[in-house]
Acyl-CoA synthetase (Streptomyces natalensis ATCC 27448), 484 residues
Amino acid sequence: MNVLFPALHDASPATALRFGDRALSYRELAAVAAPLAGRIAGESRVALWATPTLETAVGAVAALLAGVAAVPVNPRIGESELAHIVADSAPSLVLAAPGEELPAALAALPRTDIEAVATDSEPAALPYEPVDETPAMVVYTSGTTGPPKGVVLSRRAIAHTLDALEDAWQWTAADVLVHALPLFHVHGLILGILGPLRRGGSVHHLGRFSTEGVARELSADGTMLFGVPTMYHRLAAEAGRDPVLAKALAGARLLVSGSAALPLTDHQRLAAATGRRVIERYGMTETLMNTSVRADGPEATGTVGVPLPGVYVRLVDDTGQAIEASDGETVGEIQVRGPNLFTEYLNRPDATSAAFDGGWFRTGDVAVRDPAGNYRIVGRKATDLIKSGGYKIGAGEIENALLAHPGVAEAAVTGEPDDDLGERIVAWIVPATGPDAGPAPTAEELAEHVARQLAPHKRPRVVHFLTALPRNDMGKILKRDLHA
Ligand code: MCA
Ligand code: AMP
């Protein structure tokens, strides 16, 4: 399987990548990525400053060609989260677009600029690609406690998941994928950029999400749309009053939602406005994609469909027994096994072994299976994981960031339902008192603080100030009592 992107070797003039008015054909992509791969070959691991640009896509392809694991970094990342990622992944250099100003922790590393402007040249000589188990990427993901963990993804896992989606979605070189997802997670980067490239098709990235951008690209030659539920929620609202958008969505071959559950009301509003159904697929940073509603299968709205080819999925009850029933009612934890799984959490053998039940990866997601074999996700085992705008955010990391603020004595973080974001982050704060405390912080100040330390999407959207947090006899915070 060694070759991840066969179309690069054909040096075809077909468009591979387009970001706004900048584009690269496969021939041009090979011409810019091959020399960059040559420059970074032999590096241990590289940080990739993952702005939503052509450069990020070129940098990712070059790292894959070179067989050097890339660590995509959110360009809006805060100080303490970046410090953790740099210390944990120890990149030997950073790849960034020319002229990009980097934060200190990355600016201290050797830097290689990503040149994404193709000059007319001979077809590039592509390097011989490494074996399948070679680490391809380290993607950071939040857990319930502690700082984010680096998920090591092999070339094998990436190739497998993209080929399974080819089958489920009849994804071909004729497809033009439209999306506006960030490029530092699996959804936007692996599915949304590497997916089209593995098929020999194209991707049109919008730079940033807007309903007008989606309408424009789908009205032109876009055939598929990827988005998180927050994006479909906004599209549903707009499609109801904008016939141009409704027509553009109606004309797409496939509308795919993932990263969080798409509420039935949004499914229904989209269907009413466009006559089209959005299909959902289910995955995780650690597992890449597990299940999907198939493009050629029966309608299964409200479910995440059936296991992808090669992926084994089971439901397990509280006693650890596999559930055989497909009755749409018996609830269990989803566990998965297959070539789509990650290799390990970087530097965390303890966390890696705790994540498995024999060869099965424990997802922490809770679901039922219907008689047709479709999985319907009904919840999540950990209440301390929040999905907001499709981002997974651990309550513990936000609590730690809040506690580091001098005006905060105690902090608890919860998620609450939000029509737009799915869940919004809520902080419950006991302000510091005493002679050194200074004035009590404002809600805006605490949101700013979290955005600066971690990332803007991790900032609390609501802050409640209390005189004490509800605790049990052991001193543990009773989060359930907070919302009451
Ligand atoms: C606001 N901003 C701030 C602050 N407040 N910046 C600094 N300090 C502050 N206090 C900035 C934000 O950075 C952002 O800037 C802008 O203001 C708006 O912020 P926000 O409200 O957070 O954005 P939004 O409008 O709510 O964004 C909605 C969104 C976004 C576009 C849907 O949440 C998104 O892109 N979600 C995608 C998540 C995703 O890809 N998940 C995949 C992981 P600016 O606009 O310039 O950024 S899950 C995965 O990979 C698995 C495998 C799976 O299944 O897919
Ligand atoms: P992440 O760890 O950020 O990769 O997020 C993975 C999590 O997103 C999964 O464990 C699920 O909880 C959630 N998720 C992804 N896709 C879906 C979906 N289609 N429906 C419901 N939840 C989803």
User: Anything to note?
Assistant: The longest helix spans residues 26-40. The domain at 385-483 is CATH 3.30.300.30 (GMP Synthetase; Chain A, domain 3). Residues 76, 181-182, 185-188, 208-209, 228, 230-231, 258-259, 283-285, 389-391, 447-448, 451, 456-457, 459 surround methylmalonyl-coenzyme A (ligand 1) (CB under 6 Å). The mean pLDDT is 96.
